[in-house]
Amino acid sequence: MSSLFIAGHEFHSRLFTGTGKYASADAMLASLVASESELVTLSLRRMDLKHQSDNILQPLQKQGMKLLPNTSGARTAKEAVLAAELARDALETHWVKLEIHPDPRYLMPDGVETLLAAEALIKKGFVVMPYVHADPVLCKRLEEVGCQCVMPLGSPIGSNMGLASRPFLEIIIEQSAVPVIIDAGIGAPSDAALAMEIGADAVLVNTALAVAKQPAQMGEAFRLAVQAGRIAYESGLGEKRVQAQATSPLTDFLGGLS
Amino acid sequence: MNIMLNDVPFEFFGNTLTDLLDSLEKEAKGIAIAINQKVVPRSLWDRTELDEQSQVFIFESIAGG
């Protein structure tokens, strides 16, 4: 399986992961270790002054995982730029997963604000990974302003509905000159394998791992599925056809007996 | 000194951002600070003096997707 390069950084694993929604920090770590993910997302929030929160940074960094802060919570380009600048200082990385979703019900990304924020952040030297709808035109625009990859959604965040946007993802993959990472909605290893088979460069999975009864085992399942899907893609899948085509030569030796 | 910290009145001993963090007994790793909507890089925390009008926001990294 080939490596994936984003902004010159080499990834051996094509499974990126989120850290949210796990029952405990231990469950999260066990799942991410089993997944062999090399890029994990984090969020920022206003500090809770009353309670000490779990220290999840140290164990993640100890595993050699690259941290990718997101701008979750931002509703406008301006808020997202501030969130990215805060994250850069907090986590000492100029990589950012740009996500702007003003609507809490469906968490649909705001494409207009995302494009504006991407332009501003790229001028400030960020590696921008934008989370967007599976919109081929917007993905091209993001590439043109300098995004190092695009992250279109398969289906709504946390919905486990898989690749509901598949026809549009296929157009994005065909047109894109930067890596395409399918983010959101991937609910089962088969969804992840399919994403890789249709030519996605990577997938980002969170909920499906975090809510599994055995998150560590599910991490392994996704690791294998992503590898299988990618290897299949690189091997060249056969075309689909309506008519049968024999895999054994059709001889007529039985005909000769009658 | 009295300031507004994360939208709540807050009193601490000293006048720099570092003094503020000391009084909170929080780890400096994984956090970021903004004053009046501008990020203050951690290299400047020592030298950044606050006044009673300062609107300070401290952010921390948490799990997320």
From TrEMBL, chain A:
GO molecular function: thiazole synthase activity
Listed EC numbers: 2.8.1.10
Top enzyme class: transferase
GO cellular component: cytoplasm
Catalytic residues, chain numbering: K97 (schiff-base intermediate with dxp)
Residues spanning the signal sequence: none
UniProt key word Cytoplasm: yes
Annotated residues for binding of 1-deoxy-D-xylulose 5-phosphate: G158, A184, G185, N206, T207
Pfam families per record: ThiG
Domain of life: Bacteria
One GO term of the biological process aspect: thiamine diphosphate biosynthetic process
UniProtKB keywords: Cytoplasm, Schiff base, Thiamine biosynthesis, Transferase
Domain Thiazole synthase ThiG: 6-249
Catalytic activity: [ThiS sulfur-carrier protein]-C-terminal-Gly-aminoethanethioate + 2-iminoacetate + 1-deoxy-D-xylulose 5-phosphate = [ThiS sulfur-carrier protein]-C-terminal Gly-Gly + 2-[(2R,5Z)-2-carboxy-4-methylthiazol-5(2H)-ylidene]ethyl phosphate + 2 H2O + H(+)
Main location: cytoplasm
Protein localization: Cytoplasm
Pathway note: Cofactor biosynthesis; thiamine diphosphate biosynthesis
Binding partners and assembly: Homotetramer. Forms heterodimers with either ThiH or ThiS.
Membership in a protein family: Belongs to the ThiG family.
PANTHER family to which the protein is assigned, alphabetical: THIAZOLE SYNTHASE
Function: Catalyzes the rearrangement of 1-deoxy-D-xylulose 5-phosphate (DXP) to produce the thiazole phosphate moiety of thiamine. Sulfur is provided by the thiocarboxylate moiety of the carrier protein ThiS. In vitro, sulfur can be provided by H(2)S.
Protein name stated in the entry: Thiazole synthase
Species whose genome carries this gene: Marinomonas profundimaris
Taxonomy of the source species: Bacteria, Pseudomonadati, Pseudomonadota, Gammaproteobacteria, Oceanospirillales
UniProtKB/TrEMBL annotation, chain B:
Ranges in a coiled coil: none
InterPro entries assigned: Beta-grasp_dom_sf (IPR012675), Mopterin_synth/thiamin_S_b (IPR016155), Thi_S (IPR010035), ThiS/MoaD-like (IPR003749)
Protein's name in the database: Thiamine biosynthesis protein ThiS
Lineage, opening ranks: Bacteria, Pseudomonadati, Pseudomonadota, Gammaproteobacteria, Oceanospirillales
